[in-house]
Amino acid sequence: MSLIDEKDQVRTEEMLLNVGPQHPSTHGVFRLVVKISGETILDAEPVIGYLHRGTEKLAENLQYTQIIPYTDRLDYLAAMLNNYALCHTVEQALGLEIPERAEYLRVIVMEMNRIASHLLFIGTYLLDLGAMSPFLYVFAEREQIVQMFNEICGARLTYNYMRIGGVKWDAPPGWLDKVRAFVPHMRERLKMYDDLITGNEIFLNRVRGIGKYDTETALAHGMSGINLRCTGLAWDLRRKKPYSLYDRFDFSIPVGQNGDCFDRYYLHLLEMRESLKIIEQALEQIPDSGPVLGKVPKLIRVPAGEYYSGIEGARGELGFYIVSDGKDKPYRLKIRKPSFLNLQLLPQLLRGQNMANLIAILGAVDIVLGEVDA
Amino acid sequence: MQSYWHAYLFVVVFAVLGVLLPVGALWGIGPLLRPNRPTAGKQTTYESGVDPFGDAHVRYNARYYLFALMFVVFDVETLFLYPWAVSLKKLGLFAFAEMVLFLILLVIGWVYAWRKKVLEWN
Amino acid sequence: MWGAWQTQPLTLAHTLAMLVGAVVILLITLGVVTYTILAERKVIGWMQWRIGPNRVGPLGLLQTVADVIKLLIKEDVIPAGADRPLFLLAPIIAFVPSFMVLAVLPFTMHHVFTANLAIGVLYYLGVSAITIHGVMLGGWASNNKYALIGGMRSAAQMLSYEVPLGLTLVGPVLLAGSMNINEIVQAQAKAGMWYVVPQILGFLVFLVAATAELNRTPFDLPEAESELVAGYHVEYTGFRFAFFMLAEYVYVFAMGSLCAALFFGGWSGPLLPGWLWFALKVTAFIFFQFWVRATMPRLRVDQLMTLSWKLLLPLALINLVITAGIKVLLH
Fold this sequence. Notes:
The complex is a heterotrimer.
Chain A: E1 15-19, E2 31-37, E3 40-47, H1 55-59, H2 64-72, H3 79-94, H4 100-128, H5 133-153, E4 162-163, E5 166-167, H6 175-198, H7 201-207, H8 215-220, H9 226-229, H10 237-240, H11 261-285, E6 305-312, E7 317-324, E8 332-336, H12 338-342, H13 346-350, H14 355-365, H15 369-373
Antiparallel strand pairs in A: 1-2, 2-3, 4-5, 6-7, 7-8
Helix pairs in contact in A: 2-3, 3-4, 4-5, 4-11, 4-14, 5-6, 6-11, 11-14
Chain B: H1 2-33, H2 63-91, H3 93-115
Chain C: H1 12-47, H2 63-72, H3 84-100, H4 120-141, H5 145-176, H6 181-191, H7 200-213, H8 225-228, H9 238-263, H10 274-295, H11 301-330
């Protein structure tokens, strides 16, 4: 029995505190209303929708190719993956053959984008936890990736690079060599991040054992991606339901053990290593020349029916569900947004934690508000 | 003895100067330089971009005050240690033994606080 | 000798000398703080592969000056719900002690501009503790929830680390047999050994506690930007905010000076003049603070308290008993 437990003698009041939408750690316009007593969180209620643009509704009035730029704006840190997820669903529906070079280019840019996205996660996560430097370091590598994307598709953030049936542009001369040179450089840098961050006792103390949940809870809440794999379940769509060329590559699926924030952080680091492996193999296997856009009808009409395909996005299973009535525009488009689903467990995780853990837990979910609010 | 009082007078000079600087800057030249156009929107408190609800002046959790109590105990202890530290050379072993005894008493209190979980934050 | 007047009867000339001394220290402090802030931004910038400020003036040397002018001509917003008198008072309470502690620091051998106070160390501890009130009042008076939590955290943190800090400072006092900071420096010069050597345990505890007292990374919880936005000074604008920041950086300077004087022999050193030695040692301390800031994440608030009460406090006590024991044995 401690002094502070004698409630009758010391009466204190609870306080409602807003975290967000304009808050440095909510990674965009996310709002959390937390009820705190002292610094202990009694309850937390997420409020979303500040960035809602109605992408799904807008898509109903757009031809399939026209939807691609809208997908760039979902998870804007991994736009290549979004591009691919949509194109892949439509291609599946149409039963299109994709030229091999195009498919390899897609894999390369997707994995590069995954690295860029994970890098930013590590930077912002450490920034949330009070370490400023990693945030600025990761931008060095991200800049290299973004520059390469700029060369291949003319944009640094919203790529609009993929088309139904392939990609818009072939890689410019020398581009693949640049990627080839980037891989070993990135490997070295990953080692540095590992030393700098994973080797820091203060950091470990802040994330180990924090925000734990098990596989069942994660599955019950529809979690996927790293948020699921951190519990020890090796569920990666690149392996479990191979799409594109992923069955041709040799890579492993890192999994966590404890399902805590540390595992979620560390898996990001490990996955970048695997992505580098994939890029390396893709660079070896890619045909030297060939078409990058397959034979696609001028006006794409998806036969009437319902189609779904999901890919392993940077944040989990990213899926597009298309209901078509045979026209050139979808009757209904539904996006399975991994960030949104990964967020579902948050209030439960936060209850009973203190304010400082809020940031550690929220940060490790790795949400992108563009995707959550769509 | 002269230097003794000189030194304190000097401290007073520092104190006066220390007060004059902020007062002069905030009430002296400040109002001449800065605009003053208060609006209701400006004067609300910041709460992550939404209108603040509730009051921040609540009966706040007592956990913080326990640390304040602990602080008083141990800081007063530290105060006793200073004059003792200065004259230990003159007082010798007896003073040392006495202070060790004093510290042991405090350590007992400290262990008690630890066992009562006063030192935990949650 | 420059400081000789301090031991002679008070005359008009002496009083004037005091005023001049205090004003000179004030100006030096403002200059040091201005360039500490710039140096921090530059050094951390380099550590993070950035250039740092380089636009205002040659090499960005006037950046902080521009920042201060900006703060001075910025509108002073006082929240409608704030406790007005306390809100206005808090920055002053925070700043004044930070300047007052400088009064006892021996920048040179003869206390040219500062007081030769017999109870220097104790004075430093006592006066610097007043700042906690300013921080806490600022947090409370703002009527802002972040500020309240930040202020409370600050108070709990500064109180908790004040204890090990005070206990470690007893070490040099014991060794020198004086609370006069200048005499402690002289004792080190006479012994031919910096007190960091016999007081290595005490020094390490001091270093951690000092960093925490200064609210600097990894102990920057009160202003934990990512959690509490800015902590106790969320609602402060313009020059009121500037005084909180000023107090913080004056303390960095003061704590560096205290560290240099008590553990690194202050102004003593071969060849170079005393003030330069002192400046070098303080610079090393400040650089260390920058370095840590560029490297470390932030502790969690409960870990912070645990560290102080369960680790630093017993270590400081052990150090104290050992030091005293050796001292008694030697005589």
